């Protein structure tokens, strides 16, 4: 009993300012703010995580797109190669079986060329499994490097292995020639001359119909070199197409 009384007396003998310090510490501990998720540091952390997830998602999308595009290009190339090996497409062929230089003379001063050339064009489809359709056909006539006539041919179609003949008349009217070319023309078309060399160049807008379902349109260009004698007979002396 005496010991308990002494303890109580010891407690009661603590200074008053000691009690006030203990009370302030307890109040401070009670009133101290607790960290919450709405602190600036927490918001920054969430924004950083969201930004990283967005960047990763964009990288995955770009990688997937590149893979799909690469696969599409590879598959397209394989398909084109398979079609080429299966059908072996070839362009149209032009041949000139007959040609006649009906008239030709030079006007001066100039000199200016006037000429009339007629020929038979044989346009053939060498493909065995492909049809051809010609929507636009133009044939140009050159003497040396000078264009002296041009003529359009009506559109037509050819089935596989088919040939079409077209009669074409090329007219030149007052076409200016360089002096050297005029001399060559004058000597070649004079009576007893050796003839003149002409070049025919064709430009055809061609559509290939492969297997009845695949269509491919392109420009086909062909040419033929002709050697014709002096007019009015002006027979075809030679050709190379």
Automatic annotation (TrEMBL):
<dbReference type="InterPro" id="IPR044839">
    <property type="entry name" value="NDR1-like"/>
</dbReference>
<keyword id="KW-1133">Transmembrane helix</keyword>
<keyword id="KW-0812">Transmembrane</keyword>
<protein>
    <submittedName>
        <fullName>Uncharacterized protein At1g08160-like</fullName>
    </submittedName>
</protein>
<feature type="transmembrane region" description="Helical">
    <location>
        <begin position="57"/>
        <end position="87"/>
    </location>
</feature>
<dbReference type="GO" id="GO:0005886">
    <property type="term" value="C:plasma membrane"/>
</dbReference>
<keyword id="KW-0472">Membrane</keyword>
<dbReference type="GO" id="GO:0098542">
    <property type="term" value="P:defense response to other organism"/>
</dbReference>
């Amino acid at each position: 009993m005496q010991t308990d009384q002494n303890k109580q007396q010891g407690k009661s003998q603590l200074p008053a300012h000691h009690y006030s310090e203990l009370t302030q510490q307890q109040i401070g501990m009670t009133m101290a703010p607790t960290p919450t998720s709405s602190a600036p540091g927490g918001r920054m952390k969430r924004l950083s995580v969201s930004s990283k997830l967005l960047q990763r998602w964009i990288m995955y999308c770009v990688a997937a797109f590149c893979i799909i595009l690469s696969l599409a290009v590879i598959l397209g190339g394989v398909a084109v190669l398979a079609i080429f090996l299966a059908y072996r497409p070839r362009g149209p062929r032009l041949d000139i079986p007959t040609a006649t230089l009906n008239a030709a003379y030079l006007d001066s001063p100039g000199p200016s060329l006037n000429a009339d050339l007629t020929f038979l064009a044989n346009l053939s489809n060498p493909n065995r499994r492909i049809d051809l359709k010609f929507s636009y056909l133009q044939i140009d006539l050159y003497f040396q490097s000078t264009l002296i006539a041009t003529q359009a041919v009506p559109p037509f179609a050819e089935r596989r292995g088919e040939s079409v003949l077209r009669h074409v008349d090329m007219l030149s009217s007052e076409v200016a020639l360089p002096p050297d070319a005029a001399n060559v023309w004058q000597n070649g078309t004079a009576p007893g001359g050796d003839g003149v060399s002409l070049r025919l160049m064709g430009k055809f807008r061609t559509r290939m119909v492969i297997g009845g379902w695949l269509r491919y349109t392109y420009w086909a260009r062909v040419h033929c070199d002709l050697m014709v004698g002096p007019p009015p007979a002006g027979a075809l002396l030679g050709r190379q197409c």
